[in-house]
């Protein structure tokens, strides 16, 4: 029987970590993810987990400790946000290149500057090329469920990559909402034990990790790493099937909401997808064929699947909660357009930058986007395809 | 109930408006509802105006924005009436509940022509009588349950008692005071 | 992991056979990498002058001065890169430093 609870997004992540009972957690506090190591260190102090909690002096050290502990053979986790993630930067790439399946709870917050503690996606979007798998979560339930699946995905022998589980800072991290938890023993059985093939603390095998890698071999190592990301897609889907059997909750690479016959649609990430669903419902009542595609897996990017899901759409808006400063749109826009090009041509597409620095996204804002799309559909004229919504003009 | 009820709390840092919103969410959760309880984070300093929100529904809630057209507004500190636009977007068929010794009619003049129901409760007096200290959030919680009718009053009281028993396990002497504060507030709230 | 032996990671190893992350499933394998042919100058041990003071072995960056029973032996020319540090530290002129072809 699932356990009916009410938890904030941060509490949900901390509970998932308690249930997984990792060998090592190394973290440094930063708003809005602070509560995760805070709650978790209480579990450690109460003896509810056997985890070694490493209270490091910076995020750079947190990720370095995770790399060391994971290479040693331990299941390792951390949590961070914004500038904390930025300080981990160089070590993120090292964790991925060393094929170490560290799990991170990333509570999305605007990357300074200007100095801001509120939500947007500029932190994790900047880390999109670091070689980490990225899973995004609409609410506390998805954050919890993604965290439980993350260890399985990362540790799969065909993958062996670190996984970042993202959710919106404050909006879901600090909002208490209903959630269904699983019993501890079920999670223990689902997650299983971490049994790496090679690890430093194995007395039966001599091993050296992280050596200098010159042009004679480095290129081959990068190709091997890229293959792991390619392999991850199938593994993510397989584990989602297993998870659905356990919980009844269905996960995919992305969620299609009333998309099947949609003529106007938006592509969006994290909590605003929930707000947008209420707008889709309202528009559907008016007879508007509106739909929504919510990205769950951003890395690896499910390019072909997205093109298939959107092929029939007439007008599309890609919603970016991060600037790319490319002068032509945000990071999600670039990937979606690349997915459509040659695969699903002819869809009139516009990009909206929204909600930067924690600007609240109202259902009215989303409705305005759909009305814009309907106007484009009516007139056939796209106009500016790189737009802002919710900014003071 | 079937419909979504949205509540906005106005308070000052340190008065427990966020805690009250979370307690209300808890109580509604325990009666089987889908809930949201979340603060709007700003400069979190003692005395700074803060806003917290509740959504309560029989169905799953997916919307994740602040609340702009609340059904109910709770003002935990009456000095906010002159500095914050507390009735902004408040539905006319809803209500505002203010912590004050004034009557609803006396409060109305601060409410920028709001035509809906105005309720008042003297949470300061109730809190000081029942708890010996000024903790306005529990009496305000009782008042909002009474005014909004979002849950069965008996169920609410039973649930509060058990959550206080849990929360104040180490100082059981305050459980009775808090319960008394809630009950008195439910009886004394004016303007129903 | 397809290829267990780091020694076989050659410049013709294809990516499907390379060890992930460049991990080396072996230890002490620096010995397999012969650096002796990097030498332009080479140290020569003059055994008659050597007092076995043991100043030279720890200065060698390549462990190319073998030690046995607290006494140094002749150079391991497979690994000596000819840096000349041992020649510099010897207080007894018991190490000569000459061109490789002499």
* Total of DSSP H or I helical runs spanning 4+ residues of chain B: 6
CATH topology of chain B: Pyruvate-ferredoxin Oxidoreductase, domain 3
How many separate domains of chain B? 1
Number of strands of chain B: 6
Distance between the termini of chain B: 20 Å
Low-confidence blocks of residues of chain B: none
Q: What is the oligomer described by this structure?
A: heterotrimer
Helix content range of chain A: 40-55%
> Average pLDDT value of chain A?
97
CATH class division of chain B: Alpha Beta
**What would CATH call the homologous superfamily of the largest domain in chain A?**
Thiamin diphosphate (ThDP)-binding fold, Pyr/PP domains
User: What portion of residues of chain A belong to β-strands?
Assistant: 15-25%
Content of β-strand of chain B? 15-25%
Write the layout of secondary structure elements.
The complex is a heterotrimer of chains A (393), B (192) and C (102).
Chain A: E1 3-7, H1 9-20, E2 24-27, H2 35-45, E3 52-55, H3 59-72, E4 76-80, H4 82-87, H5 89-97, E5 103-108, H6 122-126, E6 133-136, H7 140-155, E7 163-168, E8 176-181, H8 184-191, H9 218-247, E9 254-257, E10 264-269, H10 272-285, E11 290-295, E12 297-299, H11 303-310, E13 315-320, H12 331-340, E14 348-354, H13 363-379, E15 386-389
Parallel strand pairs in A: 2-3, 2-4, 4-5, 5-7, 6-7, 10-11, 10-13, 13-14, 14-15
Antiparallel strand pairs in A: 1-8, 6-12, 9-11
Helix pairs in contact in A: 1-2, 1-7, 3-5, 7-9, 10-13, 11-12
Chain B: E1 5-12, H1 17-30, E2 34-40, E3 49-57, E4 72-75, E5 95-99, H2 104-108, E6 117-121, H3 123-131, H4 137-148, H5 153-167, H6 173-188
Parallel strand pairs in B: 1-4, 4-5, 5-6
Antiparallel strand pairs in B: 1-3, 2-3
Helix pairs in contact in B: 1-4, 3-6, 4-6, 5-6
Chain C: E1 41-45, E2 67-68, E3 71-72, H1 85-89, E4 95-99
Antiparallel strand pairs in C: 1-4, 2-3
Task: Please summarize what this structure is.
Chain A has 393 residues and is of the alpha/beta class. Chain A has helices at residues 9-20, 35-45, 59-72, 82-87, 89-97, 122-126, 140-155, 184-191, 218-247, 272-285, 303-310, 331-340, 363-379, and strands at 3-7, 24-27, 52-55, 76-80, 103-108, 133-136, 163-168, 176-181, 254-257, 264-269, 290-295, 297-299, 315-320, 348-354, 386-389. In chain A, the strands form 3 sheets. In chain A, strands 3-2-4-5-7-6-12 form a 7-stranded mixed sheet, sandwiched between helices. A 6-stranded mixed sheet of chain A has the order 9-11-10-13-14-15, with helices on both faces.
């Amino acid at each position: 029987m699932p356990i009916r609870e009410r938890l904030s997004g941060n509490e949900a992540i901390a509970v998932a970590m308690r249930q997984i009972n990792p060998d090592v957690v190394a973290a440094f506090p930063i708003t809005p993810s602070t509560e995760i190591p805070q709650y978790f260190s209480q579990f450690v102090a109460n003896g509810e987990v056997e985890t070694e909690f490493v209270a490091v002096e910076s995020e750079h050290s947190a990720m370095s400790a995770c790399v060391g502990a994971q290479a040693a053979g331990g299941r390792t986790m951390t949590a961070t946000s914004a500038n904390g993630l930025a300080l981990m930067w160089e070590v993120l790439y090292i964790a991925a290149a060393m094929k170490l399946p560290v799990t991170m709870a990333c509570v999305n917050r605007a990357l300074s500057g200007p100095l801001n503690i509120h939500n947007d996606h500029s932190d994790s979007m900047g880390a999109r090329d670091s070689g980490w798998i990225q899973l995004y979560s609409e609410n506390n339930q998805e954050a919890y469920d993604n965290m439980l699946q993350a260890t399985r995905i990362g540790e799969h022998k065909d993958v062996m990559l670190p996984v970042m589980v993202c959710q919106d800072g404050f909006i879901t991290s600090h909002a208490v909402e209903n959630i269904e938890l699983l019993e501890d023993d079920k999670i223990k059985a689902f997650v299983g034990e971490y049994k790496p093939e090679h690890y430093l603390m194995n007395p039966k095998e001599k091993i050296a990790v992280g050596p200098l890698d010159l042009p004679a071999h480095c290129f081959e190592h990068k190709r091997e790493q890229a293959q792991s990301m390619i392999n991850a897609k199938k593994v993510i889907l397989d584990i989602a099937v297993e998870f659905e059997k356990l919980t009844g909750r269905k996960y995919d690479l992305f969620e299609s909401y009333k998309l099947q016959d949609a003529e106007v649609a938006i592509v969006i990430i994290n909590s605003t997808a929930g707000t947008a669903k209420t707008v889709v419902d309202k528009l559907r009542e008016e007879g508007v064929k509106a739909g929504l595609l919510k990205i769950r897996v951003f890395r690896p990017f499910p390019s072909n699947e997205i093109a298939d899901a959107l092929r029939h759409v007439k007008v599309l808006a890609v919603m970016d909660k991060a600037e790319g400063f490319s002068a032509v749109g945000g990071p999600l826009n670039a990937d979606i357009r690349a997915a459509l090009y040659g695969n699903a041509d002819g869809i009139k597409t516009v990009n909206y930058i929204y909600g930067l620095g924690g600007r609240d996204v109202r259902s009215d804002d989303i409705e305005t986007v759909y009305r814009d799309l309907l106007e484009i559909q009516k007139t056939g004229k796209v106009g500016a395809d790189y737009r802002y919504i919710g900014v003071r003009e | 109930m079937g419909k979504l009820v949205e509540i906005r709390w106005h308070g000052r840092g340190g008065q427990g408006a966020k805690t009250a919103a979370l307690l209300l969410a808890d109580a509604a959760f325990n009666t089987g509802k889908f809930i949201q309880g979340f603060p709007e984070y700003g400069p979190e300093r003692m005395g700074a105006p803060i806003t917290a929100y509740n959504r309560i529904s029989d169905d799953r809630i997916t919307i994740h924005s602040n609340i702009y057209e609340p059904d109910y507004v709770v003002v935990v500190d009456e000095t906010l009436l002159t500095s914050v636009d507390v009735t902004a977007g408040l539905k006319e068929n809803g209500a505002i509940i203010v912590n004050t010794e004034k009557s609803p009619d006396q409060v109305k003049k601060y409410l920028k022509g709001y035509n809906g129901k105005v309720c008042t409760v003297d949470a300061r007096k109730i809190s000081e009588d029942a708890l010996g200290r000024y903790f306005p959030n529990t009496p305000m919680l009782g008042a909002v349950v009474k005014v909004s009718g979002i849950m069965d009053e008996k169920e609410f009281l039973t649930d509060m008692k058990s959550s206080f028993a849990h929360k104040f396990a180490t100082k059981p002497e305050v459980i009775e005071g808090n319960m008394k504060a809630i009950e008195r507030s439910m009886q004394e709230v004016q303007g129903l | 992991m397809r290829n267990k032996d780091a020694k076989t990671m050659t410049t013709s190893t294809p990516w499907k056979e390379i060890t992930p992350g460049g991990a080396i499933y072996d230890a002490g394998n620096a010995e397999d990498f012969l650096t002796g042919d990097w030498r332009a100058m080479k140290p020569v041990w003059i055994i008659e002058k050597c007092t076995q003071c043991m100043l030279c072995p720890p200065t060698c960056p390549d462990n190319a001065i073998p030690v046995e029973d607290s006494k140094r032996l002749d150079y391991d020319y497979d690994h000596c890169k000819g840096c000349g540090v041992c020649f510099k530290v010897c207080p007894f002129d018991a190490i000569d430093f000459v061109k490789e072809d002499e």
